[in-house]
Design goal:
With 93 residues, this protein is α+β, with helices and mostly antiparallel strands. The chain contains five helices and three strands, in the order H-H-E-H-H-E-E-H. The two termini are 14 Å apart.
């Protein structure tokens, strides 16, 4: 039996990657809203996903305010597809 990707098996990281798979990109505020995560926890999990090259983070300014947006990389999309496939196999779906 295949072992599930431990990086994606964590609930918040899976929620982030799953949401980003359905949109072109999302800003930090939208990800907080969708995942109901705290700023600190979301920030830590985004960093882990970025280090794994599953997401790309772009930092800029909107006027005087910092703006962070995230998008799923090809590597992240592939990892999500593999994760879902392995989960289906485990559940015999």
């Amino acid at each position: 039996m295949a072992k599930l990707n431990p990086l994606l098996h964590q609930e918040l990281r899976l929620a982030i990657v799953s949401f980003l798979a359905s949109v072109e990109k999302a800003d930090f505020k939208k990800l907080m809203e969708v995942t109901e995560a705290s700023k600190g926890n979301l920030s830590v999990q985004l960093s882990k996903l970025e280090q794994a090259k599953y997401i790309e983070i772009t930092k800029s300014f909107k006027g005087k305010y910092p703006h962070t947006s995230c998008s799923l990389t090809k590597n992240g999309g592939k990892a999500l597809k593999v994760y879902i496939s392995q989960l289906r196999e485990m559940l015999d779906l």
